[in-house]
Amino acid sequence: MTVQSDNAAAAIGPIDIRGVMAALPHRYPMLLVDRVISLVPNSTIHAVKAVSINEDFFQGHFPGRPIMPGVLIVEAMAQAAGVLTVETMDLRGSGKLVYFMSIDGAKFRNPVEPGCLLDLHVDLVQIRGRVCKFTGKAMVEGKLCAEASFVAMIADPPVN
């Protein structure tokens, strides 16, 4: 099923950090979404990450010129996609997890530095069963920093 919906009346948001944590299993230091500005199920999400100098990765990436690692920017987009998936498929509280399957066409345009508010814009492109395809862009003050297409799968949590 290809997903296309421009129904602004169905928009959800904002969603605060408690709502984000209810949708995602990630916790500090790997939780990379601080707030959802808006979300339209079956369509799109705009989330944000407040990038702070206190992030652990800035200690070594890079001393004297701290920038957020590109893989973490892509992870932030994927986490935003996870929130979109949970809301779209009504998975909140189900224990289901959204796992990364693939990343395509990742491009990094501008560095993300401490003190920035990273805007994460993710579109749901397609749902086929338990597999979802997305495109995402990460921006700071309207300037494109990173973009990628990626695929995720809905799965049951591991059994201990």
From TrEMBL:
Keyword Zinc: no
Entry's EC annotation: 4.2.1.59
Positions annotated as active site in the UniProt record: 61
InterPro entries with a match to the protein in the record: FabA_FabZ, FabZ, HotDog_dom_sf
Source taxon at top rank: Bacteria
Keywords: Cytoplasm, Lipid A biosynthesis, Lipid biosynthesis, Lipid metabolism, Lyase
UniProt key word Lipid biosynthesis: yes
Gene3D superfamilies membership: Hotdog Thioesterase (3.10.129.10)
Principal subcellular localization: cytoplasm
Pfam families for this protein: FabA
Catalytic activity: a (3R)-hydroxyacyl-[ACP] = a (2E)-enoyl-[ACP] + H2O
Subcellular location: Cytoplasm
Described function: Involved in unsaturated fatty acids biosynthesis. Catalyzes the dehydration of short chain beta-hydroxyacyl-ACPs and long chain saturated and unsaturated beta-hydroxyacyl-ACPs.
Record-linked NCBIfam families: fabZ, PRK00006.1
Family: Belongs to the thioester dehydratase family. FabZ subfamily.
Annotated protein name in UniProt: 3-hydroxyacyl-[acyl-carrier-protein] dehydratase FabZ
Organism: Sphingobium fuliginis (strain ATCC 27551)
UniProt gene name: fabZ
